[in-house]
Structures are given as structure tokens and as C-alpha cells.
Amino acid sequence: MINNSLNLNDLAIFALVVKKRSFTQAALEAGISKAWVSQKISQLEGKLDIKLLNRTTRSLSLTLGGEILFEHCQAMLKEVIHAENHLREYAKAPSGKLVITCPEISGLDLFPALLHQFKLLYPQIKIRLIITDQFVDLTQQGIDFAFRTGKLTDSGLVSRYIGAVPRCLVASPEYLSNNSPIKSPADLFNHQLLKHSSLPDWLLKKEEEAFKIHVKNPVIESNSLIFLHKMSCLHHGIAFLPYYLCSDALKHKTLVKVLPDWLNVDNEYYMVYHKEKSVLYIHQLFKDFILQSDLNKMISN
């Protein structure tokens, strides 16, 4: 600091005088009196103990000290304007916190890309993502949005359909080559099956036909679809998985479809939220973002 610090307004007046090359014009633009402008310049010179302007009745020019100060004033005032604009934009930007829950495969496979795009659009909105395959109470857990498969039972919530999640039977080529051929769903009872804990029955459909397999004695059971996917890639048996989870493995021939004509497309994916919260601004932003995103394509491909 110099002489009890310089006043930013005084520096702005000085810069305006230099730009207008006139005390009178500077006073008119700033909406203050010429005498006030002259007083502020004199006070500034007094604080700095240096003459800043050469003044005559007809002309006004900068001294060397004035040139140095004006150069720094311009840079400083630009920074102030930039900071002000930045703060105004910050004040306008949507802010707050969203608490979201989704199944394991959604949280690890789909939502990183989705939430990355959302954060690019709304960097001031904070996100807490709870990854679980368990149904959670949105009210008790303070959750704003839940992504679930299966239809809604709570009338106090709103459910928006995102799309169908096709499931298919998959196994590694090595497993299939070392075991008996599979020509119909009934043949699956003679094979090693990898079961998800929440899916004891596999409902398979082929056009108008349907076949249900009750997985009674699986060789491996888990509450993680990702784990079952990895175990099927390691030749441990046949898994019944969402297509989007195993699409890369199918593409690279790590896995192949078993009975490819027999699928399940009844697995519906929903976004669930509180009816009364849906009017909140950041909730509307997130809801619209999801509905306009490619999530429906991501889960169905």
C-alpha cells in the first residue's frame, strides 16, 4: 500500500480523464462535477507525491509518472471489469446439490459420461451419487432422483419411462466349446448358470413363445451384475445380463450370445422423483437433461 492505499474510484477517474483528454468531458461521462474531478486528481498526486498530468488551459498531457500509472490503471480496471462479469455470471449460474441413486451397472457404466456432461453445463451444481441395487426410500434418504428398473408402486412419486433394457444369455466361446450344445431353453438346466440374487427366474421370449427358467442351483450367485459378467468372461458359465453391459465383450468375441433368438425386453428403466420437488429449478434442469440425453439409447443398445 502507498500512503494509506489508493482509492479505486480515484484511479478510475484518472484513467477517464486521460482517455477523454479533458476534465470537463470526464466529469460529464462520470456524472460528477469538474471541480470534483480536479480535486480527486490533486488528491491522487498528493498521495503518490508525483505530478501525473501537465495541464494548461488548452491542453492536457501525461507526465512520465502519469504514463506509468495509466498503463497499470488500464490493466487493473480490465481485471476489475472481468471479475465483476465473472461474479455476475456466477450469481446467475444454477447452484445447489442433487442426491441421485442408481443401480451398480448404471453408476459405473453409464452415469460417469452423463454426469460429466451435466457438470460441464452446470458446474455450480453439486452431485452426490449413491450406487446401489437396493430399493431405497427417497424421502428417508433425502434422495432427489432414483433410476430403477420395474414399475413404480409409491403414488407420492413421479416415474418417467426412459426405455427398455434388453437382457440376453451369454457365455464365453471356451465354456460353450467344452460343454454340451444348447439348442433350446430347456437345455440350460444341464449347464452352469450364473445367477443374480434379485433374479431367481429367467423369463425368455421368442416371438410368441415364452419359457421361464427357475435358477435353483447356480454355480455362482452374486448381487453384482458386473461380477457375473466378469465370471462369464472367465468361462464359468452362462449369465443372463443386460445387453449394454456385455455389448463390448460380444463385439470382441469374449462372450457370445446363447440362444440369440431368446431374449427379455420386459425390463423397463425409469427415472423416479418427488412430485413436489419437481418444480425446483435445479430439479427441472436435471430432469430435462436426462430426458434429452442419449440414456435411452445407451441402455437399449
List SSEs in N-to-C order. HHHEEHEHEHEEEHEEEEHEHEEHH
Oligomer: single chain
Total beta-strand segments? 14
CATH class of the largest domain: Alpha Beta
What level of helicity do the residues show? 40-55%
Largest sheet entry: 5 strands, mixed
Neighbour order of strands in the largest sheet: 4-3-5-14-6
Q: Could you provide a short overview of the structure?
A:
GO terms for molecular function: DNA-binding transcription factor activity; sequence-specific DNA binding. By secondary structure, the protein is of the alpha/beta class.
Tell me what the structure shows.
With 301 residues, this protein is an alpha/beta fold. The chain has 3 domains: 8-92, Winged helix-like DNA-binding domain superfamily/Winged helix DNA-binding domain (Arc Repressor Mutant, subunit A); 96-160 and 274-300, Periplasmic binding protein-like II (D-Maltodextrin-Binding Protein, domain 2); 167-264, D-Maltodextrin-Binding Protein, domain 2 (3-Layer(aba) Sandwich). Helices cover 43% and strands 26% of the residues. Helix 5 links the parallel strand 3 and strand 4 (125-131). Helix 2 (23-30) crosses helix 3. The radius of gyration is 34 Å and the shape is elongated.
SSE layout and pairing:
Layout: H1 8-20, H2 23-30, H3 34-48, E1 53-55, E2 60-62, H4 64-92, E3 96-102, H5 104-121, E4 125-131, H6 138-141, E5 145-149, E6 157-164, E7 167-171, H7 173-177, E8 193-196, E9 201-206, E10 209-214, E11 220-222, H8 225-233, E12 238-242, H9 243-251, E13 256-264, E14 268-274, H10 281-292, H11 295-300
Parallel strand pairs: 3-4, 3-5, 8-11, 8-12
Antiparallel strand pairs: 1-2, 5-14, 6-14, 7-12, 7-13, 9-10
Helix pairs in contact: 1-2, 1-3, 1-4, 2-3
GO molecular function: DNA-binding transcription factor activity; sequence-specific DNA binding
GO biological process, one term: DNA-templated transcription
Protein name: Transcriptional regulator
